[in-house]
Amino acid sequence: MVRDDPQLSAAKRAYRNASMEGNRQEEARWANLIGDIFKNRGEYVEALKWLRIDYDISMKYLPEKQLLPTCQSVGELLLRLENFKDALIYQKKHLELAKDTNDLVEQQRASTQLGRTYHEIFLRSDDDHYSVRNAKKYFKSAMRLAQTLKENPPSNKSSFLKEFIDAHNNIGMLEMDLDHLEEAHKILTKGLKICDEEEVIDDDDGRSRLHHNLGRVYMELRKWDKAREHIEKDIIICKRIGHFQGEAKGYINLGELHYRVQKYEEANLCYQKALDLAKSMEDEDALVSQIDENIVTVKKAMKVMAEMQKEEQNLKKLARNMATARGTPGERRCLLQQNASLDLLIEKSSMIFAWLKHREFAKRKKRIANELCDKEKLSDSFLVIGESYQKLRNFDKALKWYTKSWETYKSINNLEGQALAKINIGDVLDSDGNWAGALDAFEEGYRIAVQANLPSVQLSALENMHYSHMIRFDNVEEARRLQYLIDKLKQSENEKHEGRNIGEDCCSETDTEGDDCLSNSRSDPSCSVKKGKSKSDRGEFKDDVPLISLLQSNKKLPKRNMAHVDEVLPTGASHKSSSTSTSNQQTVGRKRVRVVLSDDEGEMQDEVACSNFECGRLHKCPVEDVGATDEFKNRTDLASPASGFQDVSAIPSKCAISSSTPMMLEESTSSYKSRSPNKHNAAGLKLHTSEGAYGQYIAFKIENDLIHVEAAPCMVDDMLSIESLKVEVACLYYLQLPVDKRSRGLLPIIQHMRCGGKALESFEAIGTFKDALGNGWVEVFVDGWVQKRLIKLYVDCCKELSETPNIKLLKKLYNLEVSEDEVMVSECDLQDISIMPLLNALHVHKTIAMLDLSHNMLGNGTMEKLQQVFISSGQKYGGLALDLHCNRFGPTTLFQICECPVLFARLEVLNISGNRLTDACGSYLSTILEKCKALYCLNIERCSITSRTVQKVADALDSQSVLAQLCLGHNNPISGNSIMNLMGKLSTLERFSELNLNGLKLSKTVVDSLCQLAKSSCLSGLMLGGSSIGTDGALQLTKFLFSGAQELVKLDLSYCGLTSEYIINLNAEVPMVGGILEINLGGNPVMQEGGSALASLLMNPRCCLKVLVLNNCQLGLAGVLQIIQALAENDSLEELNVAGNADLDRHCTSQNNLKALESSETLPQILNISVSSPKVCVLKEVAAAQEGSCIMNTDYNQLEVADSEDDPITAEPAASYDDNCTSSCKRGLQFSESEFIQGLSTAIGMAKKLQLLDLSNNGFSTQDTETIYTAWSLGSRSGLAQRHIKEQTVHLLVRGQKCCGVKPCCKRD
User: Fold this and answer.
1) Are the beta carbons of 831 and 805 closer than 8 angstroms?
2) Upper half-sphere CA count for residue 231 (Cβ side, 13 Å)
3) Distance CA 127, CA 480 (A)
4) In sequence order, what are the residues at sequence separation of 6 or more whose Cβ sits closer than 8 angstroms to the Cβ of residue 1111?
5) Residue 1074 to residue 1045: CA distance in whole angstroms
6) Under a CB-based contact definition with an 8 Å cutoff, are residues 1148 and 1192 in contact?
7) What b/e readout covers 938-950, taking b as 16+ CB neighbours within 10 angstroms?
8) What is the DSSP letter of 613?
9) Count of CB atoms within 10 A of residue 203's CB?
């Protein structure tokens, strides 16, 4: 497709024009249109980029209703790209907005998309019970809404007939994927009937999807003519409406149909047509690749057919020989040769799904077994006959033959055979709708397998039991218990199975007879196919090899994630089970993996490879797509190296299959039930199989249970946070407890963990930890139990709403340092829908003193429900702190507070910063200030408000208000007059003590009004970072702040343009400033002179500073040394930030600093060397020589400290220096560098009270930081020292302190 088509160029021009004009609505509209153009061209990544632009503009500048189409588009694209987690975020936001605006049309669309996404997740998971529940819930909701809209269409809207029809298609697909073929047929047929009744045009895409899926249903029902009729109608419609992707998938579907009836030439032609269509489309490389694989599969199937025909000739020859061998000593050998030949034919026929032939060969095998008088072979033949009838969907006869097989195995006391027969019986009963009987059979099979100590058969039975409880009976608790048993069993067997070669399986003759068989058959015949081996894969064959050997080999293949035609015959067991049969074995316990369905509005992209998912799953297709049948999904033993089939892709329906996905082309209806033994890929069990530190799982043994925890969320750089792991293990352990234990709400307290005999510290290097772990697990010691009632309520509510518990939220609720009245769940990826279980839990919990919902994605809907929680709680007294900052709340959130009388007496803290409130919130803020009599802290920073709202806030204040803290920084434009009016009102408040005006540019008149406020009020905190008041303004303000009865403890003057003059004056007023505890002077060019004054201030015994921030102050390393050395005589400072101060000394030195260096004795004193020392002389000489040539880059003076989020203004990193200059300076400095680092280390070691030191971006080498950390670890910090050192980030701290990760807006005093 042409990249620069006129429509796209015109749209981009229109977007640029709207952007330059500042017309946000048009800018968003054109960005959306451009994204839609790229989406239609199949360029999804580029489309997503433009749709995100649309979303950002709409979010920041447009009414919330404008987000509806944006969320819908972004959600649909993310679904096509199979980014399900992010897709759900936007789709739930779409639904929430639609509900807020009572827009049924958008609710219907959002419900459809959510149903599609949960359906996709379900098809890729082995045990995600909530996803299938949610898929049903949203699809049914979409159906109800579509019917409502159809019956009562909104004015000027369509009839919504299309949506109603597509809703039938979606539910039909879901029923098909749950093996409810009759129900799927009924719903899809009803959809077509509606099309006819409503006279929908023949060439309608909705009809196309219905025909597509009906074709799939009929194919599963083996009604080939009906299937072909619907598939061809699908192709014709897609061709007429120009839907190339749908047409290509239609041909893939038709190719599969031909493949399953062994018409390989026709199948090849269909795939070739699909390939031509796929190549004509943009960005369909994955689809092209998958079709190529299917063509290869067909060719290999043709080869199998030829081999089968050749073997049939060999069987006829053996039958003729038998006529002459009757009554002779060679009779038994001839019978064994025929048995081996039949085994091979049964195997080949199952590989190409020739089930009629399969039945014929199976019955002949039964006759041979009778003549041999071999009951085991007879039992095997009964299993194979049962399989034939099961695949032919004659369930009554299948049950009859499986029952015969079980009875015969029982008569010879073969426990393995009994267990496998029971599993197969259960599979048939399940397919026939007798779910209770199926579960009983699976449980009986499991009991027998346990008795016989057959782990693989146990696994098969457990997986089928799990499927029954999860899908058939909706019993989540029992399904979870069984999943735990499955995981435990897989872990114990995994390594043993992976190490085996499928080719080691043997047939069931005795050694002598097996040799006879091989020597007298054709050149290299196979014996009993019961072991599932291809002839080329077999060596010696023995009749007494246990059935389980084949089962084990079958379990291996899925673990390799390969799509192929299996070389082993599938047994009578459905893929739910693995059955032994003379002819084959199939994978046990695999959930059927159909390719998916889709949605009402567009084709779901099937081209995204699913190699990242476990085996047993197919690519999902768009709405009409239902995927490949299960035969391919079930084949497991095709891995024989000689067979050449291990790479054969499945022949899928419209959606082509990736080579990494094992699957079968045809399967009985039971196929979907089976669960893949590869649910946990290698990384799912232990750390040792993953690349790098992320994506790895760690096994923890707690009491007698194993818990698997993903490492990535607990990583800090390349260190593993053990404390975070402890919390996650505790929460996951609670989730898997049985219901009766979990009902008490008791969670383990974990204080100790050991790995390889070593107790784990707070942080462990991932490499060291991995080596210590090996293939084992971490031993966890439970030191007690704590009751967390709110966690118990939350998990129960998740179950009621079919929502998966949010592990981030659970970890927050587990916090042992706070009471259950303090609910702090920030940064948990919560949205208005996903928070519902928590709100319901709070409704029951009732008591709340602190609620922190910050840094989530919550909107007005949450506040509406939260209001109901507060009202229902009945709490009419007791303080309440409400932290809602950094969400997606709008002005009507404040309206909900205004309408909640309970809050008038309780609300003490309201933090709504970082939400786009705009000036529409002004009247609501006024009401809150007037009615909430207990409100002492209000934070409305970064809320997009202007002078108008500030004035309303000022007007609402009166002398009776108890307001003590007000934050309104980073809002603009705010005029000086409105701020001065506010200052006047604040000065009348008796309790007012803290004001935050960070980021507001303050004029001299505003500074004057601040001085008056400081004079009349007792301020304890004043934040003016980035206000540009300058040295004069700061000096003027300081006189008032430090005079009289002021008790200022916190002052922020960062990035205010202060010079050393301010520091010198501050030092002169030590008696007055002695009470201040925290001061931030970062980003001010105080230079080394200011550093000297600060050092003097710190050495003064009256100094009480606990926190001092001096990042990017151009102190130079000499100044940094002075300040740190001064701490030897300071007993109060705990935190010091001197990041980004290296440029003056570490690289090239400016003229002023050269003079300072020459005239000052500071550096030699600190380094303990003589002024006449040769090294100092050399330093001065080199510095003087470079004075004219070293030009310092002034950008470097604004270098920000790494990982520091305290400063409101960030600067670009330094540009590179002139190479000659830099190298010359370094040559001059190298003589004193080691002494300098030694001096710095000595000073750090003497700063005994310091608990947090930031030395980032000061040019220290790795060796330097090691030396510095060694000094930090000695003395009073011995045993407590920690560090965060990576590249130029150098944070030294003690246990209990945090250097990174806490956002500035979340810091609490």
Assistant:
1) no
2) 28
3) 8
4) 1082, 1083, 1137, 1138, 1139, 1140, 1141, 1200, 1201, 1204, 1206, 1207, 1254
5) 13
6) yes
7) bbbbbbbbbbebb
8) S
9) 14
Instruction: Report the distance separating Cα 859 and Cα 898, nearest Å.
Output: 17
- Residue 1004 neighbours by CB under 8 Å, 6+ apart: 1033
- Nearest-angstrom CA–CA distance, 182 and 562: 31
Structure tokens belonging to residue 474? 């909706």
Which residues have a Cβ under 8 Å from the Cβ of 292 and sit 6 or more positions away?
Answer: 275
Q: How far apart are CA 289 and CA 301, in angstroms?
A: 19
Name the token pair of 1261. Answer: 């080498």
Please give the average per-residue pLDDT across 77-104, as a whole number: 87
The Cα 131–Cα 979 span in angstroms is 53
Secondary structure string (H, E, C) spanning 268-304: HHHHHHHHHHHHCCCCCHHHHHHHHHHHHHHHHHHHH
Alpha carbon distance 1226, 257 (integer Å): 75
* Whether pLDDT at 1111 is above 50: yes
Instruction: Read off the tokens for 1058.
Output: 């202060």
Share of residues in the chain with pLDDT > 70 (%): 75
Instruction: Look at 304-318, 830-844, 994-1008, 1065-1079 and tell me which has the smallest mean pLDDT.
Output: 1065-1079
Rounded distance, CA 1052 to CA 1029, Å? 12
> Who has greater pLDDT, 183 or 1048?
183
Kindly give, in sequence order, each residue whose CB lies less than 8 Å from that of residue 599, ignoring residues fewer than 6 positions away: 76, 112, 113, 115, 116, 166, 170, 622, 623
What is the rounded distance in angstroms from the CA atom of residue 317 to the CA atom of residue 883? 85
**Measured distance CA(1066)–CA(266) in Å, rounded:** 91
pLDDT tier, 319 (very low <50, low <70, confident <90, very high otherwise) = confident
Q: Model-level pTM?
A: 0.55
**Dihedral pair phi/psi, residue 1291, rounded to 5°:** -115, 125
**Nearest-angstrom CA–CA distance, 692 and 698:** 13
Burial class of residue 453 (count of CB atoms within 10 Å of its CB; 0-12, 13-18, 19+): exposed
Dist CA 1023 CA 984 (whole Å)? 18
Q: Residue 70: what pLDDT?
A: 87
In angstroms, rounded to a whole number, what is the distance separating the alpha carbons of residues 1111 and 465?
62
Cross-strand bridge partners of residue 880: 907
Check residues 50 and 710 and name the one with the higher pLDDT. Answer: 50
pLDDT of residue 663: 32
Sign of the alpha-carbon dihedral angle for 1229, 1235, 1237, 1243: negative
Interatomic CA distance for residues 623 and 209, integer angstroms: 6
Ranking 138-142, 503-507, 553-557, 985-989 by mean pLDDT, the lowest is 553-557
Instruction: Give 231's contacts (C-beta < 8 A, 6+ positions apart).
Output: 211, 212, 215, 250, 253, 254, 257
For 937-976, the pLDDT digits (tens) are: 999 999 999 999 999 999 999 888 999 999 999 998 899 8
- Cβ–Cβ < 8 Å for 1166, 1121: yes
Q: Tell me which of 204 and 1302 has the higher pLDDT.
A: 204
Question: Rounded to 5 degrees, what angle do the CA atoms 687, 689, 694 make?
Answer: 60
